[in-house]
Design a protein that fits this description.
497 residues, alpha/beta, nine-stranded mixed beta sheet, five-stranded parallel beta sheet, globular, disordered C terminus
Length: 497
């Protein structure tokens, strides 16, 4: 039985994979491609997560695809709307016809003699192994494990008679109406789920070991409506998008250069929305500097409003043990609960867990470097989509998709079959690919490739600068090794010349 071959194989049908396919179809129309999706639906993160209040903490005008602008005035958008946007994009561009659902890629093996990848695929319905080959592998799998979340080993949790659920696996079967709920965590998920639960529970408490920065952000942008009435839609969208990019960049820059100033600003915003006398320094004034960890967004300050209305509370303490009826804290206080939500984080996983081999040798990702935020040193004909830690994910993922298209066209024009990033000049030192100190990053960052200081092995967290560099950088780069497969090798491999 012949093994199916495509020019480009995209792994993942989330916001990155669908966007990559659209770009490929637009800019490399002669290329054949397929998308392999391990789950049974389009949407990735936005289909997996279904907990109350699920939304993006990035504005939709930069989270959307540049080629398919967001047309609403809503800035912070719920997860269902984002999922539907990705699904609609896939249908509108015909990408949905190229998706193979229930196909999880477990291994990809590169052969230099025929310049192609052989990909092993596990079928979800039969557990059988399938194989495909491709000339270029493009992984759009995100950065965390879809099959498990992170929950610490809480003492006594087995004694608890109520229900415990991780937000990653929330379903309609989780009943919370009228219940006493404790949400463990202080990150983006906790900040999102607490105000959403507050409207329907008897009491909801956010239990945090230490506070995070919570930045109130308008859920709707009045400027959008004004510009929409005065300007053509495309121009209005472009202005709003680039304005938001600049705002994000400026906030990041200020946080790095003058952290104390940004710290005071965020504290002042919290004080304005919390009740008089509220202990803001205990519950909303972190020990670390802004953007050392990812900043949480409260749409229209909804978390603060829930606290001010008496519908939610925050407790900053550590867990001594679970009891039959709740959680005993180190301070001696006990929080009674019927439902505990462990918003305690994710587990990182590079490339969706795909094992890579090059001519029979395993690729050790932590020993590699990332080339222009997209490719991996020593790994031919491969790219991975990754967003920014301080801006919308799609900004980085779409930039990578454009890089890939530019590279593929360059290779075709010159008859190259293979492109491999090489650290030919050596680097003075390396640094983690993630520049955050969050717990989930510390737990898993060593699984990922690293970066170094300076172009092209370092990706600045600045989309505007990165876009100029990436799209203008010559592909005749000493760090890129191009090669052609000989006719003899092609014949031996059964590849048409």
């Amino acid at each position: 039985m012949a093994i199916e071959h495509v020019d480009v194989l995209i792994v993942g049908a989330g916001i990155s994979g669908v966007g990559a396919a659209c770009r490929l179809q637009e800019r490399c129309p002669g290329k054949t491609f397929a998308i392999l999706e391990g789950r049974e639906a389009i949407g990735g993160t936005w289909d997996l997560f279904r907990f109350p209040g699920i939304r993006s903490d990035s504005d939709m005008f930069t989270l959307c695809y540049p080629f398919r602008p967001w047309t609403g005035s809503q800035t912070i958008v719920d997860g269902t709307s984002i999922r539907e946007y990705v699904e609609d994009t896939a249908r509108e561009y015909g990408i949905d016809r190229s998706i193979r659902f229930g196909r999880r890629v477990v291994r990809a093996s590169w052969s230099s003699s025929d310049a192609r990848w052989t990909v092993e695929i596990e079928r979800g319905d039969t557990a059988e192994t399938e194989r495909m080959t491709c000339g270029f592998l493009f992984t759009c799998t995100g950065y965390y494990r879809y099959d498990e979340g992170y929950t610490p080993d809480f003492p006594g949790i087995d004694r608890f008679r109520g229900e415990v659920v991780h937000p990653q696996f929330w379903s309609d079967e989780v009943q919370h109406d009228g219940k006493r709920v404790v949400v463990i965590g202080s990150g983006a998920t906790a900040v999102t789920v607490v105000p959403a639960l507050a409207a329907r529970t008897a009491r909801v408490t956010m239990l945090q070991r230490s506070p995070s920065y919570v930045f109130p952000f308008p859920a709707t942008d009045p400027v959008v409506g004004l510009l929409g009435r005065l300007l053509p839609p495309g121009l209005a969208y472009s202005i709003v998008r680039w304005r938001n990019v600049k705002i994000q960049t400026v906030l990041w820059g200020l946080s790095r250069r003058w952290p104390a100033l940004v710290k005071r600003l965020i504290r002042a915003l919290a004080l304005r929305q919390l009740p008089p006398g509220y202990d803001v320094d205990t519950h909303f004034n972190p020990r670390y500097n802004p953007w050392d960890e990812r900043m949480c967004v409260a749409a229209d300050g909804d978390l603060f409003k829930a606290i001010a209305a008496g519908k939610a509370s925050v407790v900053t303490d550590t867990i001594e043990t679970f009891t039959e009826t709740g959680i005993l804290l180190a301070s001696g206080r006990e929080l009674e609960a019927d439902l505990v939500v462990t918003a305690t984080g994710i587990n990182l996983q590079p490339l969706g867990g795909i094992k890579l081999t090059i001519d029979g040798s395993d690729v050790e990702l932590p020993e590699t470097l990332v080339y222009r935020g997209a490719m991996i040193s020593g790994v031919p004909n491969m790219a991975f989509a990754f967003g920014y830690i301080n801006q919308s994910w799609t900004l980085g993922a779409d930039l990578t998709a454009q890089q890939v298209c530019r590279l593929l066209n360059y290779m075709d024009e010159r008859g190259y079959d293979r492109c491999t990033p090489r650290n030919v000049r050596g680097v003075a030192g390396t640094t983690p690919f993630f520049e955050l100190s969050s717990g989930y990053v510390r737990r898993g960052v060593d699984l990922f490739p690293r970066q170094s200081f300076g172009d092209p092995w370092y990706r600045p967290q600045n989309y505007s600068r990165d876009r100029r560099t990436v799209m203008r950088a010559p592909l005749e780069d000493p760090a890129l090794e191009f090669a052609r497969v000989s006719r003899a090798d092609r014949s031996a491999a059964g590849v048409a010349a």
